Amino acid sequence: MPALAVVLGAFGALVLMRMLKREWQRVNDELDRANPARVSDPERAAVPTLRQDPATGEYRIKR
Asked: What is the pTM of this model?
């Protein structure tokens, strides 16, 4: 009887892992469709880049 419980537990864990994998993939696919990657964004290009000053540790506009 304990062997049967171990086999059923292992089978249940396998089924649960497959269900979680499918749900994880479904959510990731939905997020990918909702937020497409932007290759070139003119608004973002207009924002200056910051660089940390090694002497003071402050962030300054990169030139």
From this structure: 0.52
